[in-house]
Amino acid sequence: MKEDITLIPELSTTGVYTLLLFLPKEVNLNIGKLGKKRFPEGHYTYTGSALGKGATSLKHRIARHLRRKKRRFWHIDYLLANENVSVKAVIVAETKENMECNMNQYLKKVMGAKVPVKGFGASDCRKNCGSHLLYFPEIEKADFLVQRIVKYLRSSSGYSFFFSRFRGMNNKVKKTPARNPPT
Ligand SMILES: [Zn+2]
Fold first, then answer.
1. Does residue 182 sit within a domain?
2. Do 170 and 91 touch, CB atoms closer than 8 A?
3. Domain count, the chain
4. How far is the CA of 28 from the centre of ligand 1 (A)?
5. Are 79 and 60 in contact (CB under 8 A)?
6. What is the pLDDT of residues 113-164, one digit of tens each?
7. Residue 44 contacts residue 134 (beta carbons within 8 Å)
8. Around Cβ 84, how many Cβ atoms within 10 Å?
């Protein structure tokens, strides 16, 4: 299988992203100051944005999320450090706007996602999301979820890009030309 991490240099500097995670069995993990938390098996999304340059740019952020060994700083670092957790897909949209809460609320309200751990990844949240990690108890096949995320990001930013590590899923980059090129 092609190593998808090689696609990271193609990412734009700033944008919003959603990581699609899969957990094949329930785990109990210590999440920094949140303490010990239970994560049931299934699919999760984690949505964030990277609006800076250099170390705070989108490509650095995604590369960091995909690297297992690192100092644990964010809540998501504790989850991604667990050997059972896999990142199945990364969906990214180029934007300079902070639209992570909009993306997250779409997943909650339209896709029926639940808040698995209150306050997870939400220290910068402006819209009362409850958590930027979401859990999808009823989704067995996540390719549908990826398609909906791509569609949402495309309609709200005009540009989206995704790469995945899915078996049985199109493993190529999908780069959609911007209808309204980002300024
Ligand atoms: Zn939020």
1. no
2. no
3. 1
4. 24
5. no
6. 999 999 999 988 999 999 999 999 988 778 888 888 888 888 887 666 666 5
7. yes
8. 14
Residue 71 Cα to ligand 1 middle (Å): 24
Residue 181 lies in a domain: no
Cα 102 to middle of ligand 1, angstroms = 7
**Is 24 part of a structural domain of the chain?**
yes
Query: Could you report how far apart the first and last alpha carbons of the chain are, in Å?
Result: 35
pTM: 0.85
63 is written with which tokens? 């590369």
CA separation for the pair 141, 113 (Å, rounded): 14
The one-character DSSP state at 64 is H
Residue 60 dihedral angles phi and psi, to the nearest 5°: -70, -40
pLDDT digits (tens, 9 = 90+) for 39-57: 999 999 999 999 998 888 9
Quick one: tokens of 121?
A: 């990844």
Using only C-alpha atoms, the chain has a radius of gyration, in whole angstroms, of 15
